[in-house]
Amino acid sequence: MYKKYYVILGILGFIMFVIRCKPDNPRIPNNPSPPRDSTAISVELNRVPYPKLSDYHFFIGKLKDQVPAEGVLPYKPASSLFTDYAIKNRFVWMPKDKKAHYVGDAESLDFPIGSVLIKNFYYNNVQPANNTRIIETRLMIMKEEGWVFAEYVWNEDQTEAFLDMNGSNTKVTWEKEQGVSLTANYRIPSKTECFTCHKLNEVPVAIGPQPQNLNNDLSFSDGTFNQLLKWVAVGYLEENSLPTTIQSTIDYTDVSQPLEMRVRSYLSISCGHCHQEGSHCSYRPLRLAFSETGNLRNVGVCVTPDEQINQDLKYIIMPKRTDASVMYYRLNTTDASVKMPLLGRSIVHEEGVELMKEWINSLNPCQ
Q1: Which among 81, 232, 338, 345 is least surrounded, fewest beta carbons within 10 Å?
Q2: What is the pLDDT of residues 260-277, one digit of tens each?
């Protein structure tokens, strides 16, 4: 009898372990890598932003190889904002013994003073040499007064990137796929343009490093781990501040996922930072943050537009009718006066437009 009792307890214990280890609430991996020594990195808050990217020592070896120094941790949101098809590498660095804290699923982590977010934009198969070209590296540095922007533009030789907050354009042609080349008039943002997207109630904020965007697996040098728990393991995130479950976005390019979740994740990373209360487009009727798009009216379905572009566009989203949907029209044009997003692209995101078309055609007609 007692033997049977202990067997039952053992089975229950195993079931509870499996439940606790479900993807929504993953545990810290065994033998996680320790925090890496970052003494070689230089972030003197009274001197930054430095004139050159190399002054920080975030990367070892040739700067263009983007090999992170010790203490510089890669990260990647579940979905990425479209920027003329540029490829992006992201990293985070924090001072020794400093940690970020969870605030909310859809809110940026609360980063300690001295933290730096690093984001590189580049293209492969750039013509005519068919090589790799890094266009820019954007830094966000947390100082006493809050986040400050630092924009670094790479030279032609790809040996250095220099501080330039004025904004500029550069033409780039690359082979997107075999036999198909695209050309973009790529926009390197000014300080004002950075603030346009990265603001909430007129205060600079980070966009990508929200728990809802990082609650997924990423391949690191020592294995594949849930990103949030990897941050905990290296001492970059306070474990006790994390909730047991997080309402998370997904990779919108993953066709195995539900169409609605793909669209909500796409709109969240592409538009949600502007179309929310206190942001640049808060005067518009749309609310496109992931936490708000469960309500179809927030996405504009069967909602009359607040601005008349032309008489054929009846609703912001008109089910079964891309030709009568304002949002589809804005996403599918390069006209600077009406395109969306306002900044960050000079060409149409074909895959994003196709995703929206599929979703619009799946909706029930307006009543």
Answers
A1: 338
A2: 999 999 999 998 777 777
